[in-house]
Amino acid sequence: MKARAMVPFVLLALAGLILAPVSSAQVIIVTNTDVIIPPPHPPLPPHPPRPRPIPPRPAYEIESVDIQVTVRDQSAKFQMSQVFKNTGNRTLETRLIFPVPADAAISGLTLLVDGKELAGKLMKKDEARRIYEEIVRRRRDPALLEYLGCGLLQTSVFPVAPGQSRTVQIRYSQLLRKDNGLVDLLLPIGTVKHVRRPVQRLTATVRIETTRPLKTVYSPTHPIEIKRPDGQHAVCKLTLFNVRSPDDFRLLFGTHQGAVGMNLVSYRPKAGEDGYFLLLASPDIKPKKAVDLPKTVVFVIDRSGSMSGKKIEQVRRALKFLLDQLKPHDTFNIVAYDSEVESFRPELQKANVETLNAARGFADGLYAGGSTNIDAALRTALGMLTDSSRPNYVLFLTDGLPTTGERNEMRIAQNAKQANRVAARLFCFGVGFDVNSRLLDRLSRENRGQTIYVKPNEDIEAPVARLASRLSSPVMTDLALKFEFDTARPASAPPPVARIYPRELPDLFRGEQLIVVGRYRQPGRAKITLSGMQAGQPIRFQFPAEFVDRSPDDTNAYVATLWATRRIGEIIDELDLKGHNQELVDELVELSLRYGIITPYTSFLAEEDAPLADRAANIRRAGEATKRLLAESSGASGFFQRDFKQRLKGARQAAPAAKPLGLGGFGVGRVAAPSQGPTAAQPGAVGGMPPLQPSRAAAESALVAGDSRQRVRRIGGKTFYWKAGVWQDATVTPEQAKSAIRIVQFTKKYFDLAAQSGGRFARYLAFSEPLLINLDGKTYRIDPPPNDR
């Protein structure tokens, strides 16, 4: 198991009654109602006895959590501040419990409340287990089980008056683990505990300083802001609002002496089965001898009548921003189109003061009117590109369908591909719901680019600016990867690695990171070669790597889920652009079920009454959904489906269970609420697409938006579904369920199972509701005590 960086979380515990934790940070705050301090008041006259009311649970909330981490090479210093408030009308007597991982190299641990250090007692693993089990038993909730196997620090008692806010602060140092050349920092801010109120704001800032050149900086769990002031420093920021149960925050970084650094993370849960790998390649941020490749960029701008008003104003500003990113050795042109096509200049222009000023004037003169001749505009732009020795990029923006000239989707794509004689990258911006989103995806796929979707009333400038920043400094183009294993394979054997995504490797840009995932058949040591072109000359880099034979735990299970996320995006793309394929539909259902990645076409898997084991019915429903929904090439339904698909294909982190990455937590497909809803919830609903506007697909599928109950959870390498009042492991078959070993929560057998394998199973048992699960070849049915049901 990896050593965890320790970050506090808050739990309120009463004598005889333990409340739910309100934060995922890891200081546990325990309150005792037997020592409540009442406010002073005059004696009251006697009155007749009344029935004794059930005492209310104390009310409190976590206002904010802030984590500051400073890392130098492998040595990290942590400071965590957490503000909690007593929102009730009674004073709470509180003590802090801080879980300490048994294998963590911790020093200088200090707990403070409002700046004053609290006396505490550090307890070892066995005594800590007794305390954790005692709290779980009294509370009748298994939330703390994940800390079996940890030690703990317990403080003295302090009061929190009604309405008062107290600041808990923790300081400590830790030596971080290093594996496969990557330093691994884990902040366990996420749990599956039941929370009453969300944390209003959670922030984490990690400042990294390295002795050797810093290359890879990557979070497999969260999109984060990364600033790289130079080649040996990075500042990484995570900000979350209204936090209930976030995933643990994990950050990996690596150093390498050279122009490009590369790291490999492999994961193989079962020997004999294909494993998964993640490859990270990062160029120098600010090399001593910077090589900025001369590039050519052609901007293709829609100025048809539908672009009038605010849109054309934003396009003018965006175009001028793009022009400002050009460098003196770049060449460019602008193609504006409506019914007709107009070029800024007849041929490509060098980016100098004179031409750029004139181009800004051309941008200011853009006006909206006329129809949309997409075919002629693309053929004109691509026809200008003749020099294949330099990177060539076409940025194509449209907000509508082709309404004049060639209007057939397939022929437009074919004409563009034929006109693209220099293997230019075509980046499409689809603005609003009226675009033919399938056409844009077809254009970007066949011309090695990407489609970016901009919702109605969304600022066009922001996504354009992000892409422009990416494209400003290409380092290598025409990338290729080669894997050479030390162990020889027969000539007739299949390739040792396969199903690598992205399918077409993008160019490598300064400040960017190449993220590649794939499967491997052969474990062992290997040599990986990254080759490409730089300034018209071939260039290559070689790195040693090792593909693990069998992973000891699920620390790197995220690699498999990230691979599945991208593979699902590729499957949807194939079905969308090439038509129905039964084998792909079968695989889509299998991957969605196994990894809990719910798509618009498999949303029924999360319905409480949909049996997971009925493979034929699930495949039939998925096939019907793909045919029906993907038939919509335009409109809101088509827009959101293809935006969703593009996000999966380009995912940098694995899609969360039941809530695909970055799509706001809305779904297509009817999902019924549980009759006895599971109590651990995460904002958002099953699916992952924003709500559709009225359309045939929307009319046929009820939309789920912001549902408060989560029916799919992924913990480590396992996925669980809420079915008929039971959390069911996706691997449990009906036959296994019938013969499952029955265990009652909070019994000795229950705690013994949680403690097996050094507590490795404990986090899987942290469900309050009934649970069906496979563990080490056995199937268990875990039920709450009879009186708790």
Summarize this structure as a short list of keywords or feature phrases.
789 residues; alpha+beta; Immunoglobulin-like; Rossmann fold; 5 domains; 8-stranded mixed β-sheet; 7-stranded mixed β-sheet; 14 helices; disordered N terminus
Please tell me about this protein's structure.
- This protein is α+β, with helices and mostly antiparallel strands and 789 residues long.
- The chain has five domains: 220 residues, Immunoglobulin-like; 104 residues, Sandwich (Immunoglobulin-like); 135 residues, Rossmann fold (3-Layer(aba) Sandwich), CATH 3.40.50; 155 residues, no CATH class; 58 residues, no CATH class.
- It is built from 14 helices and 42 strands.
- The longest helix is centred in the last third of the chain and has 22 residues.
- The protein starts with 12 loop residues before the first strand and ends in a 6-residue tail after the last strand.
Largest sheet: 8 strands, mixed
How much strand?
25-35%
Give the assembly state of these chains.
Answer: single chain
CATH architecture of the largest domain: Sandwich
How large is the radius of gyration? Answer: 29 Å
CATH level-1 class of the largest domain? Mainly Beta
Stretches where pLDDT is under 50 for at least 5 consecutive residues are 1-26, 32-55, 191-195, 660-709
Strand order of the largest sheet: 8-7-12-5-4-15-18-17
What is the average per-residue confidence, as pLDDT, rounded to a whole number?
A: 84
SSE class: alpha+beta
What is the CATH topology of the largest domain?
Answer: Immunoglobulin-like
What is the tally of helical segments?
A: 14
